[in-house]
Write a structure and sequence with these properties.
The complex is a heterodimer of chains A (85) and B (411). Chain A contains 2 helices and 4 strands, in the order αββββα. Chain A is an alpha+beta fold and 85 residues long. Chain A has a 4-stranded antiparallel β-sheet, sandwiched between helices. The longest helix of chain A has 26 residues. Chain A is globular and about 45 Å long. The longest helix of chain B has 28 residues. Helix content of chain B is 53%, strand content 1%. In chain B, strands 1-2 form a two-stranded antiparallel ribbon. Chain B is elongated. Chain B has 411 residues and is mostly helical. Classes of the chains: A alpha+beta (85), B mainly alpha (411). Chains A and B meet through helix 2 of A and helix 5 of B.
């Protein structure tokens, strides 16, 4: 388990958290991808090393990922409604 | 032939064009996507300008005819590219129809699905621009592992029976066991009646005989014909999906495209050239190819499909021959391997027999696929897709391949 206040999460640990449903990726089918976990967004900076861990997103990134997550959820709901119609 | 407003280079471009075309055909569709798809999400400038205008008009409750749109866009304050009537026509033509009912003229559109694809592509760009890493995850298997399982038990039992006899022979034989196994694989056997059942004879009804010799050209043409037919008539894919596997296609790009069709169907996503192009774009290490390109799929969808019966038969026939040849070569190789002991040889033969038997039973229609079921999938014969424009199928044959070479020798 990740302890509160932790400043990084290994990629493998994040994958495990996602697979157990404890963390939510921005989009399914992507890895790595920003992940929402314990009330905040985690991501791997683009310039980081290949095996770099996830780190908390900045406030600006938070806003971007929140907006995208909201719109993707609406889109998924629209697709689901379309399929069931 | 209408020129494309912006040359499509990938699946996202196709999705954007298809989305705009669907919205132009029926601007009221904007209400289903405008709450979550923004103009800035669209990459192509002309498509972005059109979407911006359509959402704006809808928001203000205004309706304009498609002929007036270029003027409305030009009059806008924004720095928009010039949109011509030809552009608009090309967008409308670039949208596959999701379903079509003769008589009622009922038309549906997959615009919500296209818009979701466009948003996903935009999200990737936005995340990258925000300085975060994002990659599509690798899918490990999109095949249908359940296919053919109904026959495995029977085939395995027959194989075990046959191999038990082979094992008995091996224990009594002098010299190499290879000739016995090779002969058993390559020619008629004269064992007990129960052992004769272990062969690979077709057990059901074929969709029909191949229409000609199985040259490389004929097989590739049949595969493209089959893929094109499924693109324009998803009912055909639904009928064949439980019967043909990606491994039944001779070329990796065709196999990967069939796997993409299967993945779409399993996810409940309608199959058309836009969704197929998107799916082919996803990583798929199970095949040595990403599948047909977006342009190839778009061109295929313009093809007027004929009856696919002959193509289906050719693909099935060629697949079985390929599998049989590969099995024979595999067993021959292990037999000639001096390091392989008799147990290894027998176990290899058992596995090979089982696999060939499964292919044969599946492809011969033992699971119930018959000509009538395939034909039923083709009726009504009206294809679903964009209007045929007499464009020939794209060639995927590499230049070094002689089309007239016997395909079995060429493999």
């Amino acid at each position: 388990m990740t302890q509160a206040g932790k400043q990084h999460i290994d990629q493998r640990e994040m994958t495990d958290l996602v697979s157990r449903g404890l963390a939510r990726p921005l989009m399914a089918g992507y890895d790595p991808v920003p992940v929402h976990y314990q009330g905040q967004w985690w991501h791997i900076p683009a310039a980081a090393a290949p095996d770099a861990p996830y780190v908390p997103a900045t406030a600006e990134q938070h806003q971007i990922f929140d907006d995208l997550a909201h719109r993707l959820a609406l889109a998924d709901a629209a697709v689901a409604a379309e399929r069931s119609s | 032939v209408t020129t494309a407003p912006e040359t499509p280079t990938n699946a996202t471009d196709l999705a954007e064009r298809a989305l705009i075309g669907a919205l132009l055909a029926d601007p009221s569709r904007v209400r289903e996507v405008r709450d979550w798809l923004r103009p800035s999400d669209i990459n192509q400038p002309k498509a972005r300008a059109l979407y911006h205008t359509l959402t704006d008009l809808h928001r203000h409750g205004r309706t304009v005819t498609i002929r007036e749109l270029p003027l409305v866009i030009a009059a806008d304050d924004g720095n928009h590219p010039t949109i011509t009537a030809q552009d608009l026509h090309a967008y409308v033509q670039a949208t596959p129809a999701a379903s079509q009912q003769l008589g009622t003229q009922h038309l549906r559109s997959n615009h919500v699905i296209y818009a979701r694809r466009v948003l996903e592509a935009a999200a990737r760009r936005i995340v990258a621009i925000a300085g975060s890493r994002i990659h599509e995850a690798t899918e490990h298997c999109r095949d249908n592992p359940h296919l053919g399982t109904g026959d495995i038990t029977a085939t395995l039992a027959q194989t075990q029976q046959r191999l038990a006899a082979l094992g008995q022979r091996l224990r009594q034989a002098q010299g190499s066991p290879g000739s016995l196994i090779t002969a058993a694989l390559g020619g008629p056997i004269h064992d007990t009646p129960g052992q004769q059942c272990a062969g690979i004879e077709p057990a059901g009804s074929w969709p029909g005989p191949p229409s000609g010799p199985l040259t490389i050209r004929a097989v590739l043409q049949a595969e493209r014909e089959l893929l094109a037919s499924c693109l324009t008539n998803p009912a055909l894919h639904a009928e064949l999906a439980e019967w043909l596997t990606p491994q039944d296609f001779s070329r990796p790009e065709h196999a990967a495209t069939w796997a993409a069709f299967n993945a779409l169907a399993q996810a409940g996503t309608p199959i058309d050239y836009v969704t197929a192009a998107w799916q082919c774009q996803r990583p798929n290490p199970a095949h040595n190819s990403p599948g047909l390109s977006a342009d190839q799929l778009a061109t295929m969808a313009r093809h007027t499909p004929g009856s696919p019966d002959a193509a289906v038969a050719t693909v099935a026939h060629a697949s079985l021959l390929r599998h049989t040849d590969a099995a024979r070569q595999h067993v021959r190789a292990i037999v000639e391997d001096r390091a392989a002991d008799a147990l290894t040889v027998v176990s290899t033969a058992e596995k090979t027999y089982r696999e060939v038997g499964e292919h044969a039973r599946r492809l011969s229609g033992a699971n119930g696929t018959t000509t009538s079921r395939i034909s039923a999938a083709l009726n009504p014969a009206t294809p679903v897709g964009i209007q045929p424009r007499g464009v020939s199928l794209p060639s995927t044959r590499p230049p070094d391949e002689s089309p007239q070479r016997d395909y079995r020798r060429g493999r």
